Amino acid sequence: MLVHDICSSMEAWAPLAWQESYDNSGLLTGNRSQKVTGVLVSFDCTEAVVEEAIAQGCNMIVAHHPILFKGIKQLTGRDYVERTLILAIKNDIAIYASHTNLDHAPKGVSYQLAQKLGLQAGKVLRPMRDALRQLTYFVPETDAEQVRLALHAAGAGNIGEYSACSFSGAGTGRFTPSDAANPTIGQAGKSEEVAELKVDMLFPKHLESTVLGALFTSHPYEEVAYFVTSLGNSWQDVGAGFVGELPQAMSSSEFTSYIKEKLGLTYFRHTPWIGKSIKRIALCGGAGSFLLADAIRTQADVYISGDFKYHEFFDAENHLTICDIGHYESEVMIKDTIHEYLSNNFSTFAVLKSMTHTNPVSLA
């Protein structure tokens, strides 16, 4: 098994195209052709985590947070980032990070937080836009099935819980091959009419080259008639945050005890309770103040996230209660999910879960 295989598996779940522009997810150190002796899954990547990987005989670390966010001009060991990178490189340890792309992925960070709280009837809080494309192509009726199946295999035609989705309409294709053409149907220099289908299907933007490759390979024509359309549709399965409902409404005191128990919290910061029972919960793992307006729009009773600044708490304006449970506390469960995902996909070598506690914040 190669580093490339682990990277590809993670990117099948959380494509790098879904990360934010400021992010640095992906392979940070190591070579994709390097053989993997073992994978250590961690929340952060620190010197202690690299040392744990060395002790466990793992030469790859898959972390949620990237150790390297910004470009660096020197590797002198002057801070924890440089020391961690130096230690990893010296010991041939590959470091891979899946950060905001995993925040946006189906069953990603916020979904896992919602699962911990037992939320029901859930959906993405802010679905991603400009991530879908529509492919329209024309194909002879006799070859329609082989092309359609090839496109589905390449990742086109999935809508939510439905796969192999397409729409087609029958018509007549007309063309005249030039003398230099090598037509599948018809003869050079002669006008031709063919019973064709016009087929439409959606596909993820980041798979465009793969989907078009499948179209060109499976299509019988020398020149394929097609076009790709950008869509303004929101992708309901992909995006930031999550919103759902508790199994039953709770009072503020009941809810306080509930989330402390479910998430193992000692305390959390919150705005005043708004004086009604709590049922609908919006949330975002990590730093989620940017989704507060979305939480209010969904008429959530509570918004759970981390890293709210003092003045941002005022923005609740009695529409809901903000619960700041901490950055680490709102995301750390993703380590278990990554570990389970990779263990299920790779059973021939060790996928270990890091025992190193990386939360830099302590409570007194």
Architecture overview:
The structure is a single chain. The protein is of the alpha/beta class and 364 residues long. It has 11 helices and 15 strands. The strands form 3 sheets. A 6-stranded mixed β-sheet has the order 5-10-12-13-14-11. The protein has a 5-stranded mixed β-sheet with strand order 1-4-3-2-15, with helices on both faces. Strands 7-8-6-9 form a 4-stranded antiparallel β-sheet, with no helix packed on it. The radius of gyration is 25 Å and the shape is globular. The two termini are 45 Å apart. Keywords: Metal-binding.
Entry summary:
This is GTP cyclohydrolase 1 type 2 homolog. By secondary structure, the protein is α/β, with parallel strands linked by helices.
